[in-house]
Amino acid sequence: MIRKTWGAALLALAALAAFAGPAAADTTLTYVGASGQYKVYITPNAVRIDGDGDGWQLYKRNDPAIISVSPKDQTYTRLDKNTAGEIRHQMDALRARIENRLQQLPADRRAAARAAMAEKVPGLNGKQQSIGLDHTGATDHVDGVACDVIQIVRGGQPADKMCVASAKALGLSSASFATVKSMFALLRDMLSGTGLEGIGLPYRNLSGMPVRFQDGLSGEQRTLAAVSHRSIPDSRFQIPDNYVEQKPEAPTVSQ
Predict the structure, then answer these.
(1) Residue 251 CB contacts under 8 Å (≥ 6 apart), including other chains
(2) Rounded CA gap, 212 and 197, in Å?
């Protein structure tokens, strides 16, 4: 299987996206699901996402990078435009190696083998997977917040499902939203050309932010449980000085 160094980060990012009106400067969103609790800390200058495991992700508006932090290993991995370029080249090389293997197979086995490899290696064909939103027209409430039910469509097939509330209803400030928006713009630009764009969600097309998310494969559901506008200390967005930077792992495929 491909090593999904950024898979956890991309899945964690599934909690965000919004259009916002005036509100409090700092916002903390708490989500719960079968695998545990996760929190999203948002300020006008930074976003931190604590998943249901040990690691967390960090974005600062004045530093164009998304950083994945591992307290267990006391390490962090930085994804910026330079490392994204390296990943792009690595994906191209991986596709070339796989295609070379496939060409060595009998012609009548190539199609099945290519399909099997595509299951293991996201973006194998180098083309962006089509992904869109189906506004179902249904509405619901999550933790007392009204939301619109939206179906994610991948490759023409129903996938994940969300209930999206307006950021104004959640109290997310316009300044904080601008930071969230810049983070997703950066992520979109960095993944462009890798063939991995379809892993995420079309955040820029959402008219609010998800308060409930249901995974289309596992069926696991994550829902908003609490919203806080207490001030978030700057230390929440700092990586300890003794943590060591690691390079993203090169994509590989099992034999």
Answers:
(1) 2, 3, 87, 90, 91, 94, 121
(2) 22
Dist CA 149 CA 161 (whole Å): 7
Q: Is the pLDDT of residue 41 over 50?
A: yes
Task: Dihedral sign for Cα 216, 85, 194, 179, please.
Answer: positive
The pTM for the full model equals 0.76
What is the C-alpha separation between 70 and 58, in angstroms, rounded? 11
DSSP state of 168: H
| 88 backbone φψ class: left, alpha, beta (φ>0; ψ -120 to 50) | alpha
H helices, E strands: number in the chain: 5, 12
Q: How far is CA 193 from CA 41, 87, 178, 188, in A?
A: 30, 10, 25, 10
CA-based nearest residue to 204, from 31, 64, 65, 16: 16
- Helices 174-191 and 81-103 cross at an angle (nearest 10°) of 40
Rounded Cα distance, 20 and 49, in Å: 19
Closest among 160, 248, 255 to 210, alpha carbons compared = 160
pLDDT digits (tens, 9 = 90+) for 203-246: 666 667 889 999 888 888 999 999 999 999 999 999 999 999 99
195: left (phi over 0), alpha (psi -120 to 50) or beta: left
Report helix, strand or coil for 99.
Answer: helix
Task: Report the C-alpha gap between 253 and 3 in whole angstroms.
Answer: 8
Tokens of 124: 């194998």
